[in-house]
């Protein structure tokens, strides 16, 4: 019998931590205690306001913060200098937390509640990714401390994911297999409300079509010129006619990024940037040759030449109902967000810019019921959710009625209303992480649902093909 004692003792040590030990570390309270850090990190990234693949300061800042907590760091993963993975722990389950930190070009704003562009900046956090990065950092740190305090086996990862805005950073990370050994991924996004629906997004692909012509004097020698802008405009005309003959879920939009410098010079270069979206990635693939054919036809008809570069492409998100329902229940238990007197006054001032139909700011104190819905936006989280079961949440980081990609979103993302929303998301993710580490039945159910949704013959395919990350797409 004595020879069996060491094995028995070892087996006892390997048992999951008892419930009382897990409850001794309150992950929700721990997130609240980190509000100062969350606010500081969110504000610093907001000040940086760096564009996709150029987020050197923000990426380095996040890495330094989490390295100080004992995480190991892998930098420059998937061939992207600003992408990283931070990890702590041993054994399993392996739970990842996504962190974004890129800004949007051409929209700037101070943290005032009235329009106040900052002329010295060229970008702003109009989608709140400064909050995204800060809230996810806090969630990862708290989950590390929970694992440590409770003795629960498992690994926690923070994925630093650049260039969500049109750069598809997560697609390259997925394609490189960086999520293959993760069991679950936690995700969130800033919003003007609190909700955790089973949300499906649209697949999309984008490209820059570049037309090359012959310059000449537009009045003295027009016959010698071939206008690259004519090529762009001819392509746009044909694509706009094509819209009549696409399915209802199709979304096509474009912007002319370069069209010439002076009316009296026939432009020898012009560029148009296109997005194509649909709920079914195969439909995006089917639509794409039609877009390319329009470009070729436009070039032929205008005597120009055309080439194109695919910039990004995302698969639709694949929600896992059991995970989303659990996240929704956690959010319902937490309740909404309460403004103090100063925040109420700020919100009332900003609300005047949102129009008469804007909801009252008290909506931030509510949580929407669980539901299944479709978004007509797109995100590279879709590719992550095609590789690993992913659960998402949205919190009211902006005054209710605020649209993403607006100056109002930039303003709230840089002050306490945004910081509170990021804290709320961090708490929801931390509590969800505790649930996943502690609940083997939920893990098994979620993985079964995920496997069934993919189907027996599913094989991951990115909409980017084999192209390398476009590290200069924002330059």
From TrEMBL:
Pfam families: M20_dimer (PF07687), Peptidase_M20 (PF01546). One of its GO terms (molecular function) is para-aminobenzoyl-glutamate hydrolase activity. GO terms for biological process: folic acid catabolic process. Residues 1-21 form the signal peptide. GO terms for cellular component: cytoplasm. Keywords: Hydrolase, Signal. Transmembrane segments: none annotated. This is Amidohydrolase. It comes from Tsuneonella suprasediminis.
